[in-house]
């Protein structure tokens, strides 16, 4: 490995996060004796993947210079739409899955168009759509089912097949790994390829880092941003499908607050709040850190009253380490 | 751990005194058999995973009951909670990963927990459910359920509202997505006989609860009965009724120290108590009994811990226990 390569490697956004992840892993291995069991690690990976799938698209959007605060409830919306369409019309669940994809992509399109057309900060626009979706989730569900949760679609046509795709437990040796872990890795690989190997990737970095300059050299900034919002919508649909087929019915009030977890995963992974810098692999490591912390605290059997305090402390620690590493290697940002 | 050594030592001394020095005696074997569970062998570890939000008064009482039973039975209790169904399922998974000796869960979102509970049963970890999900409990593989039937309790509340002379009521739902709360309102509406509307409020933010209810009472002055679904919300309802200049009577589910004094001075007309402390206590005790003596409580049917209606007439009896925070 030549000097310049190692320097280039050290300047990658995810290096700090990687060190943080290793440190946390060692830490929890020492304080929680059940943490290192295969079953425990698969639980940690599962927790990480449920946040990680969303964190990938949220990281791309943040690199592109925008936020999406509606991402958390959009997951619930996706699941509700699929369950409601399939159950109320007595259709094969795959029809619900398809309709849900169309609806969530449309929501992403609306988010994107509102941002680029009005020029309002995405923080404001998606805050508004967040509230609207949270309300619609409950209102529509209540109107249609008379309750606050969808009816279970467990016994409907296509459920088993959809479950195999979105929520299967794969037996690897004698360990159960949820299929979401596999999908998560697939999404991370795809996003990394997009960012580093395609023209669109350059547009994302340019549009997020210096939109005016990018526009001046002919980068379709608006179109890129809309596509990124739709990317978030796509993963929200996917996560929603996982919720639905793993748990069969959906509570309309869930998902609120998760958008911040996605953002924090991306930030731990080296994304900047100002856009133009970050990586999909970083976001994946961020999600891993979040999953390890989230479940490590449980395995360590710390008092659950303090759970959020420890979670916050760990996240702060991870981001500070991240920053220190980046300064040390002189990434210049 | 120290206490265990003390206990074990005590038991050892007892055994010496009782058994004397005979190498093999029928009496000694009998005595050892009688010492079930007390300090013998490793401590049981029981995980309790509820759907409580952080800092919830009601769940604190359930937890206290569980801790009381754990202390009495010399059980190590691992408590955790998450209101999100998927997250709660993951917490159950972590308990199974740790190979605990028993699991206590709440089935507020039964579908979400279905698979992990099956995993627990497959790993030969007995599961007991408390509080919510009486209908699903046995089907999902739990050996016992301790709670109240929400619809039955709701019916009791509806009758009480009727008794205090209300003709038009509001049912204040403080946790969206909880089937049990919906069941309470449905049961109350059934026996109340007059029009009853559900009002959804954000239970984690009390000022929001208060202003929503005040606005509702101001907007619809014909409302003369308010039913809240948790003790802290009854106190807020008292404020809302005052604020709106309404004369509505207030009834509530659950119980607390403050609520007892409100019932004594008539600000709140009645409370339908499901005795949460008892739920936590019985759940841990049931798992302990199953382990040390193979007992199953309830014969596969839910064991009801409520409704126990508290009004001005019997508030004085309940007051000392509520003051301790165990009722």
Automatic annotation (TrEMBL), chain A:
NADP among keywords: no
Keywords noted in UniProt: Cell inner membrane, Cell membrane, Membrane, Sugar transport, Transmembrane, Transmembrane helix, Transport
Superkingdom, natural source: Bacteria
Location of this chain's protein in the cell: Cell membrane
Ranges that cross the membrane: 15-36, 43-63, 69-87, 94-114, 120-140, 177-196, 226-248, 260-289, 309-325
Keyword tRNA-binding: no
Its membrane topology: Multi-pass membrane protein
GO cellular component: plasma membrane
Coarse class of the protein's main subcellular location: membrane
One Gene Ontology MF term: transmembrane transporter activity
UniProt function note: Part of the binding-protein-dependent transport system for D-xylose. Probably responsible for the translocation of the substrate across the membrane.
Name of the protein this chain belongs to: Xylose transport system permease protein XylH
Source species of the chain: Thermomonospora umbrina
């Amino acid at each position: 490995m030549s000097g310049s390569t190692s320097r280039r490697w050290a300047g990658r956004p995810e290096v700090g996060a990687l060190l943080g992840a290793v440190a946390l892993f060692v830490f929890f291995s020492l304080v929680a004796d059940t943490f290192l069991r295969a079953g425990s690690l698969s639980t940690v990976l599962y927790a990480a993947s449920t946040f990680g799938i969303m964190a990938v698209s949220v990281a791309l959007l943040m690199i592109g210079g925008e936020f999406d605060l509606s991402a958390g409830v959009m997951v619930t919306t996706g699941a509700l739409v699929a369950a409601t369409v399939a159950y109320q019309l007595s259709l094969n669940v795959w029809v619900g899955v398809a309709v849900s994809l169309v609806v969530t992509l449309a929501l992403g399109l609306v988010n994107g168009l509102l941002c680029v057309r009005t020029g309002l900060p995405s923080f404001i626009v998606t805050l508004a759509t967040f509230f609207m979706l949270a309300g619609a989730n409950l209102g529509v569900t209540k109107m249609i089912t008379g309750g606050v949760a969808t009816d279970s679609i467990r016994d409907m046509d296509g459920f088993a097949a959809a479950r195999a795709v979105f929520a299967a437990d794969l037996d690897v040796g004698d360990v159960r790994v949820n299929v979401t872990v596999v999908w998560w890795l697939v999404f991370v690989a795809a996003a990394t390829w997009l960012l580093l190997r395609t023209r669109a990737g350059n547009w994302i970095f340019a549009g997020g880092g210096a939109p005016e300059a990018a526009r001046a050299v002919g980068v379709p900034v608006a179109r890129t941003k809309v596509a990124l919002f739709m990317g978030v919508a796509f993963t929200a649909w996917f996560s929603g499908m996982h919720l639905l087929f793993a748990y069969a019915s959906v509570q309309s009030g869930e998902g609120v607050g998760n958008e911040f977890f996605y953002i924090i995963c991306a930030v731990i992974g080296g994304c900047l709040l100002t856009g133009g810098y970050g990586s999909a692999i970083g976001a994946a490591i961020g999600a891993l850190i979040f999953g390890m912390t989230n479940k490590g605290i449980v395995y360590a059997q710390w008092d659950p009253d303090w759970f959020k305090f420890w979670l916050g402390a760990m996240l702060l620690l991870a981001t500070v380490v991240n920053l220190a590493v980046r300064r040390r290697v002189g990434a210049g940002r | 751990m120290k206490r265990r050594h003390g206990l074990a030592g005590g038991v050892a001394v007892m055994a010496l005194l009782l058994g004397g020095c005979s190498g093999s005696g029928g009496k000694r074997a009998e005595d050892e058999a009688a010492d079930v569970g007390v300090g013998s062998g490793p401590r049981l570890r029981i995980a309790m995973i509820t759907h409580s939000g952080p800092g919830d008064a009601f769940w604190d009482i359930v937890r206290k009951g569980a801790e009381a039973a754990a202390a009495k039975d010399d059980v190590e209790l691992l408590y955790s909670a998450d209101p999100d169904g998927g997250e709660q399922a993951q917490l159950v998974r972590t308990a199974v990963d740790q190979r605990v000796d028993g699991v206590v869960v709440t089935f507020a979102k039964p579908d979400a927990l279905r698979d992990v509970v099956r995993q627990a049963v497959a790993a030969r970890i007995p599961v007991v459910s408390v509080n919510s999900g009486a209908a699903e409990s046995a089907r999902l593989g739990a050996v016992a359920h301790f709670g109240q039937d929400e619809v039955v309790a709701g019916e009791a509340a509806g009758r009480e509202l009727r008794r205090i002379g209300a003709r038009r009521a509001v049912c204040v739902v403080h946790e969206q997505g909880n089937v049990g709360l919906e069941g309470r309102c449905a049961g109350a509406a059934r026996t109340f006989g007059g029009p009853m509307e559900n009002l959804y409020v954000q239970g984690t933010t009390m000022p929001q609860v208060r202003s929503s209810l005040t606005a509702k009472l101001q907007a619809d002055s014909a409302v003369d009965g308010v039913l809240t679904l948790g003790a802290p919300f009854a106190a807020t309802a008292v404020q809302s009724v005052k604020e709106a200049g309404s004369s509505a009577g207030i009834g509530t589910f659950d119980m607390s120290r403050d609520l007892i004094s409100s019932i004594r001075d008539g600000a709140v007309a009645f409370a339908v108590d499901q005795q949460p402390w008892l739920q936590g206590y019985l759940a841990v005790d049931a798992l302990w009994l199953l382990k040390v003596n193979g007992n199953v409580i309830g014969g596969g049917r839910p064991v009801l811990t409520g409704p126990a209606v508290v009004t001005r007439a019997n508030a004085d009896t309940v007051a000392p226990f509520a003051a301790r925070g165990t009722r």
